[in-house]
Amino acid sequence: MTLDITSLTNTVLTLFIIVVVSCAAAKFKLIDDAFTKGFSTFIICVAQPFMIMNALSEVDFSLENLKNGFTVTATGFVSMAVCAAVAFVATVKFSSLDEKKICTFGIVFSNSGFMGIPVMKATFGETGAFYGAFFVITFHIVLWTYGMYILSRGRSDIKVSPLNMLVNFGTIPVLIGIVL
What we know:
By secondary structure, this protein is an all-alpha fold. 77% of the residues lie in helices and 0% in strands. Helix 1 crosses helix 5, helix 3 runs antiparallel to helix 4 and helix 3 (63-90) crosses helix 5.
């Protein structure tokens, strides 16, 4: 596999332009909080699931690919546990619970799905996007469990349920993609 630097550059440049235009639109009040919330919901509930299913369906099914995908998932759990440990140590001296929660969450959780899959595809081709989608399984399970735990500390309006751990907008598209 060779690295297509042109494809990678185009993908990163496109993502950068999206960020810059979005920031400018917010600064000039072209978008408001309601739009931002609605668009975030659209990305999580519609765009990302289809991106995951696409990444998984572009690689031919084989038991080896599936086994490697589950290895990526297991490795993802280990790497997120390491990030959680680093976050714990890095935020131990924070006195504000809200500051500690946001910093911990930011250290543990990246934008690995929506922005990560296109970068993986540009860098490593369809196979990279395929394995990146398996990492998203880990990401969403940890997000809907540990991430919700982090954000729910000190709040009674956020509840973590076992159903949310397994059935969410990250795991269901992966299962559909595997079937496809």
